[in-house]
Write a structure and sequence with these properties.
This protein is mainly α. It contains nine helices and three strands, in the order H-E-H-H-H-E-E-H-H-H-H-H. Strands 1-3-2 form a three-stranded antiparallel β-sheet. A hairpin with a 6-residue loop joins strand 2 and strand 3. Helix 1 crosses helix 4 and helix 3 crosses helix 4. The termini are far apart.
Length: about 220
């Protein structure tokens, strides 16, 4: 009988079980999420979390100890370079098991095992903002008058701009009308000269007609 036995042998020998857990731990560290059975996930949690805690102390000795369990250089590098920085402030509980239902073939209970700090749905900035919005302290009534003050300033500035544009636009139009209506000195002199010439020619024509009329009257026989 298995009285007091806490480990699940997973129907494997010692060497086979150690190789299974080592490969699963390397896959979890590299991919940050794996799909497996609930029984294997529970055993993997006890296997991999002490190694993650060991990675917080980045020394040659720690790397050699972790490598003796994982036997994978890529997973050891990923664990000490990236994962250790991500979980530095967490005292424990680095993994999460999410059950997904039974498997179709043998009805084994399946789950998804993941590293907690790499799930953005629970640790992202959006979740933090939603939580802070629900608190009562976030609602401040003092924001309303500030908005009104800004709106009045905007209206005043816009009206001032409109007034400036209205005053500035008609000035060139008025100047153009004045310049067109008032003639220059040279134009006035030219017009006067033209009128004098025209009057002189008319007077001369009248004198010629008068002399012609007198001559005809003198040549005519007297009755």
């Amino acid at each position: 009988m298995r009285h007091g036995v806490k480990d699940n042998h997973l129907s494997r020998t010692y060497g086979h079980r150690q190789a299974l857990l080592s490969n699963m731990a390397s896959s979890l560290i590299i991919h940050k999420r794996i799909e497996t059975t609930v029984a294997k996930a529970k055993e993997l949690r006890k296997y991999v979390e002490p190694l993650i805690t060991k990675s917080k102390d980045d020394t040659t000795h720690s790397r050699r100890v972790v490598f003796s369990y994982l036997q994978n250089k890529e997973s050891v590098k990923e664990l000490f370079d990236n994962v250790a920085e991500k979980i530095a402030a967490r005292p424990g509980g680095y993994t999460r098991i999410i059950k997904t239902g039974d498997r179709l073939g043998d009805k084994a209970e399946m789950c998804i095992m993941e590293l907690v700090d790499y799930n953005l749905l629970y640790t992202g900035s959006e979740a933090k903002q939603n939580k802070s919005a629900k608190t009562r302290r976030s609602r401040k009534p003092s924001n309303a008058p500030k908005v009104e003050a800004q709106s009045t300033d905007n209206t005043i500035s816009s009206s001032a701009v409109v007034a400036e544009t209205v005053v500035a636009e008609p000035t060139p139009i008025v100047e153009s009308k004045v310049t067109d209506a008032v003639p220059t000195a040279s134009e006035v002199v030219a017009e006067v000269a033209d009128t004098e010439v025209a009057d002189g020619t008319v007077a001369e024509d009248n004198k010629v007609e008068d002399t012609a009329a007198t001559d005809t009257n003198e040549d005519a026989p007297k009755a």
